[in-house]
Write a structure and sequence with these properties.
By secondary structure, this protein is α/β, with parallel strands linked by helices. The protein has 2 domains: 7-168 and 338-356, Glycogen Phosphorylase B (Rossmann fold, 3-Layer(aba) Sandwich), CATH 3.40.50; 173-335, Rossmann fold, CATH 3.40.50.2000. It contains 13 helices and 12 strands. The strands form 4 sheets. A 6-stranded parallel sheet has the order 9-8-7-10-11-12, with helices on both faces. Helix 1 packs across helix 13, helix 3 packs across helix 4 and helix 7 (200-210) packs across helix 11 (304-316).
Length: 357
Amino acid sequence: MTEAMGGGIVSFISSIGNRQSSAGARVAVLYARRADTPPESDLRQRFGDRVELHPPVTGKSHLTRSWQLRRRLRAQMRSGDYDVVHLHSSIAGALGRTVRRRREDVLRVYSPHGFSFLREDKSLTNRWATEAAERAMARLDPLILTSVSEVEIARQRLRAKELAFLQSGVPRSSIVDRPHTPVQRLRVLMLGRVVYQKAPWRFAAVARALGHLADFVWVGAGNGNYPREWFADSPVQVLDWVAPEQLDDLLAQSAVFLFPTLWEGMSLSLIHAQSCGVPCVTTNVVGNRDAIVHGETGFVCDSDPELIEATRLLLEDPALRKTMREAAQRHARAALTDDEIGTASLELYHRWMSASR
């Protein structure tokens, strides 16, 4: 269940759901529709015939959708048809863990995909209260986390009862040697929604500093309802979402993938860029530092000036770009694939269910 069926969570849930069903499990998906949720026809195509995709919960407000989703989950749990409830994203985690189980042997598992108390767009009071709530609930049910640094946060700050790391990523078969396709001018690419979390003003600052060396392209404008001052007078071309084939072409033509986000869980955009052999420049936050090998497949930066200098170094040094392209694909094949996510997650479920009996 998730209230956040958009962006990377769509990719994660479709990957784990499809692979679990291929391994013999019965999988059903409950979700709420929000602005960036793909059309139901697209979702059904991504999930295929084996996964039961329930009709989306809709409503005018986020609060209405959330409580309707909770009621639907409660009805499903009371039916006694399920052995495991896997909750994705922080609100689904909070709502789902407050539903009383009819069967005590039903396992509840929570994956935050980025802890909400790390969000820099929230007040300190809000973040403190959210962390306190997460700490209390972490004693109730196991956590499945998708980055090593997220595991460290859960251990140090939440003192979680049970937790495990589950590798997310891209299918190994999708990582193929694609020759870099030179274009007339070098390109720096960003993939993600134009929202506060993704720090578009940082991307714009790098573009202003280095626009004489490359074109700067941001893919993921969605409905285009974002503050225009984030890009201001910067030379950034903002595009809507593109088809997967077109995105692969854009990545093949890009010299650098610049990902200056403020917080993450584990970014599939970074993983995708690495799998396509694009050197990455990113911020030193949870998830980002797990996807990149600093100095080998890209650069993990602690400040805005470092983002500019790392991008400049890659743009001005073609030999370094070539070395990092090759290293990025090797790293992706070795550490950033999700081929085992179905069987690995089912094994975790079974282990925790057996331990509770």
